[in-house]
Amino acid sequence: MQTTGNKRSSCPSFRLREVASMYFTMIMVFLVILVVALQGTAPRENYFPYKVPLDPQSFLELSWNVSYPEQVVHFQLLVKEPKFGLLFGMSDRGEFENADLAVLWSDGHSSYFGDAWSDEKGQLHMDSQQNYQLLKAHRTPEGLYLVFKRAFSTCDPKDYLIEDGTVHLIYGILEKPVRSLQAINLSAIHRGVQRVQLLKPNISAPELPRDMKTMEVRAPNVVIPSQETTYWCYMVELPDSFPRHHIVMYEPVITAGNEAIVHHMEVFQCAAEFDSFPHYNGPCDSKMKPDRLNYCRHVLAAWAMGAQAFYYPEEAGLAFGGPGSSKYLRLEIHYHNPLVFKGRHDSSGIRLYYTATLRRYDAGIMELGLVYTPVMAIPPGEAGFLLKGYCTDKCTQVALPPAGIHIFASQLHTHLTGRKVVTILSREGREREVVNADNHYSPHFQEIRMLKKVVSVFPGDVLTTTCTYNTEDRNQATVGGFSITDEMCVNYVHYYPQTQLELCKSAVDLGYLQRYFNLVNRFNDEEICMCPQASIRQQLSSVPWNAFNRDVLKSLYDFAPISMHCNKSSAVRFPLGFWLKLAVCNCFSRLANASPFPESTPFKDEIRIFFGSPGIAKPGYMVDDHQNLPMKDGPPRSSGWRRLL
Ligand SMILES: *[C@@H]1O[C@H](CO)[C@@H](O)[C@H](O)[C@H]1NC(C)=O
Ligand SMILES: *[C@@H]1O[C@H](CO)[C@@H](O)[C@H](O)[C@H]1NC(C)=O
Ligand SMILES: *[C@@H]1O[C@H](CO)[C@@H](O)[C@H](O)[C@H]1NC(C)=O
Ligand SMILES: *[C@@H]1O[C@H](CO)[C@@H](O)[C@H](O)[C@H]1NC(C)=O
C-alpha cells in the first residue's frame, strides 16, 4: 500500500509475520481502552520538543519526539474539544484512501482506541497488528491528551513507513457517536491534512557567541486578507553603515493565535547593485508592488510550519551587512487561510541572531539540479516521470577547494507537479551518500532542513539530483521554466566554506532534443514544425504522446549528452565552466538501500541507432558534431564521465 521502502528489508519473512499477526489479532483486536476521566493538569515535564496545530482552528495540536536508538516516534495529541473521537494518521500524499490511522471513537458509552487502515475506497478496517500503541489518555482543563507511539517501520504491509522528509498527516473529528469503527464514513467527517517533517534530525544546538545580538524582521500589524492564499511582502532596511556580521541562528516569531495560518516565511537580501529599494508593505502579487523587489532573492533565512530554530554549524555563519551587500531585506510571509477568517491581525516574522565576531568560515548557498530550460520537459499524463540534473566531476574539480566543502542543510524545490526529490553524491564511479531525499515531497511544504549528517564534497565528486513529477492532470507537456506552471528541479544546498561556485546544474543538449523531434516526425507525419521560428514549447506541444514517443524521450534524458553550467555568481562561468555535449553516465554502482528510483531503462536499439546516425538532424539548429557520438557503440559504459568534444 505505502512506499515499499528499503527499510522494510529488515522485516521478518512473510510466514513469520503471519504468525506474529495472528498472535496480535487474538490479544489486541478491539483493544478497549477506557478514556479515564482524570482531572489534572498537562504533564509537567515536556518530553515533546516539536509541535504543530493540525487544523486551521488549532482544535487539534500535535506534539512529538523522535528516538533514533529505538526507531520510534512518540506522539501527544491535545484535543481541545473532544467530541465523539478523532482519527489521526499518515498517508502517501495526504489522501484518506490507503491511509494508516489511529482512531479514537465513542459509541456514547465507552471509548475505544485502535490501529486501523483505510482501503482504496476509504472504508476503515481494524488492523490485525496494533502498531499505534496508546500509552496514556487523560483529561485536563485544556482538553483531552492522548499519548501514543509508533515505530518508524512496523513490517505490517498496511502501515505507513515513516521516512525522512515530508510526512502527510491526516486528521478527522467525529462529531456523532459511532457504533463501530467500520461505521465511520470518512467522506462525511470534518477532516484535513497537515504536512510536517516528523523525523527531525537529532542535532544538539551549537554554542552561541556571547556578543550575540538579535534583530526581528517582522511585518507590522498586517491584516491577513480573507482569502485562502496570500504571499505578503514587506521591505526592511538595515541601519546605515551596518557592518559585516555573521548570522548564527534564526527562529520564527509567530503572533499568538495565528500559529495555524502563518504557513511559511522567508527573509531575502536585495541585490547590492541598486543603491535603494522602495518601501513596500502589501501582497507580493499586487500590481502596486514595485518591480525592483524582484531583485531581492538572496535567501538569508527561511522557516516553514513545524520547523524549529535554525542553527549554523559552530565554525560558520551567514554573512550580511558591510560593503558589497545591500542594506535592504524583503520579508515574505505565506498566509494559509482556508477558513477565510476576516480581520485577523498579524505581526509574525523571523528573529535573526547575529554576531560581529565573525566565525572562521562564511556559509554559502549553491544551486544544484536542472537549468531552467524548456529542453527538459515532462509529457502529460505521467504518474512518475524522472528528470536528472548533474553537478559533474569536472565542475567540482575546478570549483571546489582541495579540502572540500561541507553541506549541512538543504532546501528542495520544484513547482506544482514535483512529487519526489533526491540528491546523491558519487565518487569514483560509486554512489556514496544521499545528501537529501524526500519521497513525499510537496511543493506546498518547502523548508530548509538541517541534514542528519554533514556531507563533505571534494573535487571530482558528482552530485546528481533526481526529481519525480506527476502530470496526470495535464494535457500538454510541462517544460522547465520560471512560471508556476513550468517545472524546476533544484536543491539549494547550504555549505561552508563559501566558494565562488553558486550554480552547478545541467540540461540535456539542445541538439539532441531536435534529433528527437526529427525522430518523432519520421514516425508521425511530420507533425512537429522544424522551422527555426518554432519554439521548443511549441514543438513539444505538437508531439503526439504515444507510448513510443514517451519512451524515446525518457531514453533521451537518460543517455543523451548534457550541457553543464558551472557558474559563479552573476552568471559568470568558471573557466571551462560551460561544457556542451558531455556524455552522461548512469553507470554509478548503486548505493544500497538509498535510491528509491529504478535503474534507468536500457537504451533501445532503434533509438540508439537513430541518435548515433550522423547527419539526420536538419541543418540550422544546434551546430554540433554529429560524429564520434558515444551512442554509435552503445551508451557509454566507462565509469565516470567522458568528454566528447
Ligand atoms: C541523539 O544522539 C545521541 C548521540 O549522538 C544519542 O545519545 C541520543 O539518544 C539521541 N537522541 C535521540 C532523541 O534520538
Ligand atoms: C518521548 O516521550 C515519551 C512519552 O512522554 C517519553 O517517555 C520519552 O522519554 C520521550 N523520548 C525522548 C527521546 O524524548
Ligand atoms: C458517506 O458520506 C458521503 C458524503 O456525505 C455520502 O455521499 C456517502 O453515501 C456516504 N457513504 C455511506 C456508505 O454511507
Ligand atoms: C551560466 O553562465 C553562462 C555564461 O555567463 C550563462 O550563459 C548561463 O545562462 C548561466 N547559467 C545559468 C543557469 O544561469
From TrEMBL:
The entry's cellular-component GO terms read: chromaffin granule lumen; chromaffin granule membrane; extracellular space
Sequence ranges assigned to domain DOMON in this UniProt record: 58-174
This entry's Gene Ontology molecular function terms read: copper ion binding; dopamine beta-monooxygenase activity; L-ascorbic acid binding
The protein's topology relative to the membrane is:
Single-pass type II membrane protein
Q: Which domain of life is it from?
A: Eukaryota
The family database entries (Gene3D superfamilies) matched by this protein are listed as: 2.60.120.230, Copper type II, ascorbate-dependent monooxygenase, N-terminal domain (2.60.120.310)
The record's principal subcellular location, in a coarse class, is: cytoplasm
Q: Which CDD domains match?
A: DOMON_DOH
Q: Which reaction does it catalyse?
A: dopamine + 2 L-ascorbate + O2 = (R)-noradrenaline + 2 monodehydro-L-ascorbate radical + H2O
Extract the InterPro entries matched here: Cu2_ascorb_mOase-like_C (IPR014784), Cu2_ascorb_mOase_CS-1 (IPR020611), Cu2_ascorb_mOase_CS-2 (IPR014783), Cu2_ascorb_mOase_N (IPR000323), Cu2_ascorb_mOase_N_sf (IPR036939), Cu2_monoox_C (IPR024548), DBH-like (IPR000945), DOH_DOMON (IPR045266)
Name its co-factor(s): Cu(2+)
- The enzyme's E.C. designation: 1.14.17.1
Q: What pathway is this protein said to act in by its record?
A: Catecholamine biosynthesis; (R)-noradrenaline biosynthesis; (R)-noradrenaline from dopamine: step 1/1
- Supply one GO BP term: norepinephrine biosynthetic process
- Pfam families per record: Cu2_monoox_C, Cu2_monooxygen, DOMON
Transmembrane feature ranges: 20-38
* The keyword Kinase is assigned to this record: no
Where are the annotated segments for Disordered? 626-645
Into which family does the record put it? Belongs to the copper type II ascorbate-dependent monooxygenase family.
Question: Briefly, what is this protein's role?
Answer: Catalyzes the hydroxylation of dopamine to noradrenaline (also known as norepinephrine), and is thus vital for regulation of these neurotransmitters.
Q: How does it assemble?
A: Homotetramer; composed of two disulfide-linked dimers.
Question: What is the designated name of this protein?
Answer: Dopamine beta-hydroxylase
Naturally occurring in which organism (per UniProt): Chelonia mydas (Green sea-turtle)
